[in-house]
Design brief:
Helix 1 runs antiparallel to helix 2 and helix 2 packs antiparallel against helix 3. The chain is about 50% helix and about 15% strand. The protein has a three-stranded antiparallel beta sheet. The chain has a two-stranded antiparallel sheet with strand order 3-4. With about 190 residues, it is α+β, with helices and mostly antiparallel strands.
Length: about 190
């Protein structure tokens, strides 16, 4: 139905251009939403582009101003998005585990690294990365409850959760695709 945009406003008396968090809805003159991209997996987020040409934003669509206000709003959502990515990775890891078992590769966690095959070792390392990332997100949400959303501890942990979980999601997804080969990119297994 629309987008939320972070934009810079006109300069104030000191020459600084403030940040604004604004909501633009379909039908706003000058605002056009492009075609959504075709993609695998999650379909409820439209990743298509949009354009703005001489758009006038009604005052009721200004959600807040100031960079700190905008960052605070984003910080609340970042651990949730990180958890969503890792949730998908857990599913991918479980699927890969099952496909390796079908191929006769049983993962034995008790074996030493030198006793394991490549696929076994790679899967164990990805699972360890998942566990570490999940721990960072859980600590982030705990800090939010204990210290509040505006605390420095929470804000630092949010930044770590976003960075670590984003990197882990990419590495785990790519690693599982490599282990699965052609089945990893099949639309049969979304």
């Amino acid at each position: 139905d629309g987008v939320v945009v972070i934009a810079k406003g006109d300069p104030d008396d000191n020459g600084k251009r403030p940040f604004y968090n604004v909501r633009l809805l379909k039908g706003t003159p000058g605002f056009t939403i492009g075609q959504p991209w075709r993609k695998l997996g999650t379909h409820y987020h439209n990743l298509g582009g949009f354009s703005m040409q001489d758009v006038r934003v009604p005052a009721m669509n200004v959600l807040g101003n100031g960079f700190v206000n905008i960052q605070t709003r984003l910080n609340v959502n970042r651990p949730v998005q990180s958890a969503l990515g890792l949730g998908m990775c857990r599913s991918i890891l479980d699927f890969t585990h099952g496909k390796l078992a079908e191929a006769g590769i049983e993962v034995d966690y008790a074996k030493g690294r030198s006793s394991r095959g490549y696929a076994e070792d790679r899967l164990i390392r990805m699972e360890a990365l998942w566990e570490a990332s999940w721990g960072v997100i859980m600590q982030c949400k705990w800090l939010e409850q204990q210290l509040g959303q505006t605390s420095k501890g929470f804000q630092t942990q949010v930044a770590m959760a976003k960075a670590i979980a984003g990197k882990a999601t990419r590495q785990i997804t790519q690693g599982c695709i490599e282990l699965l080969g052609p089945e990893g990119i099949s639309e049969e297994y979304l």
